[in-house]
Amino acid sequence: SAKMVALIRKRGIPFLRLIERFSKPRFGGLSERRLTRFILGIVILPVAIVMLIPIPFTNTVFSGAILLIGIGLANDDELFMLGGALVGLTAVAVVVTLLIVGGLALYHL
């Protein structure tokens, strides 16, 4: 609807300007290499798979990590890509660890 478009425009443009202020091309164009994009794809895959697990309030972290990687790819900002990869892989490690520990705890009841 027109109201929704106006709301997105009103709130989205300041958010995009904030991102543009911090995101800029860095580290000499690593994002243009096929290997970098391949590695980021491998990083995004487990993040997306774990995002499918219905654990309350965790999808925000995973989608934020993918968003950071996407912003980094769009603006050739390797720092954003690295940040998104680190956030995503750390979140995956935490969730997998909790699932393993929880499973072992249930097994030993």
TrEMBL record:
Keywords: Membrane, Transmembrane, Transmembrane helix. This is Exopolysaccharide synthesis, ExoD. It holds the Pfam family ExoD. It comes from marine sediment metagenome. The keyword Cytoplasm does not apply. The keyword Signal does not apply. InterPro entries: ExoD (IPR010331). The chain crosses the membrane at residues 40-73, 79-107.
